[in-house]
Amino acid sequence: MNHSRREAIKTGGGLLALLLSAGILKPGEALAQADAFSMKTLAEALRAVGAQNPAASNAIVFKAPAIAENGAVVPVAVESKLPGTESITLLVEKNPTPLVASFAIPAGTTGSVSTRVKMGQTSDVYALVKAEGKFYMAKQEIKITLGGCGG
What we know:
24% of the residues lie in helices and 37% in strands. It is built from 3 helices and 9 strands. The protein has helices at residues 3-21, 27-36, 42-48, and strands spanning 55-56, 60-63, 67-68, 74-80, 85-92, 99-104, 111-117, 123-131, 134-144. Strands 1, 3, 5, 6, 8 and 9 form a 6-stranded mixed beta sheet that branches. Strands 2-4-7 form a 3-stranded antiparallel beta sheet, with no helix packed on it.
């Protein structure tokens, strides 16, 4: 193990201990989030993050291609116009593990994230937003083509 990796582990452990002792992060929350990434269905992943019946919302804006030529690197951006956005979570319905990314949004910042996700096939992609303690959702279908020949 190299020196910088050791320092990162020490710092991460210290940060986790600080968050736990300050009451910002509860012990069960960290484990629950990790478990959510192992769920095999969309419904299981939603339950694992505590979103039983999220409401549909037009205040969640997707910026993603309708057709992606390479499912290994599909660019997805989500902007939440909901006040008090706390987190943005991305789920891909037909992936073996639907939960692909989860972002905590600090208070006072813009609810906007962008990343690249891996998709094995054409699927609905869901943005789950937690705002003021409630869950909201939007979805967009992204078609994955093989060799760029159409979906």
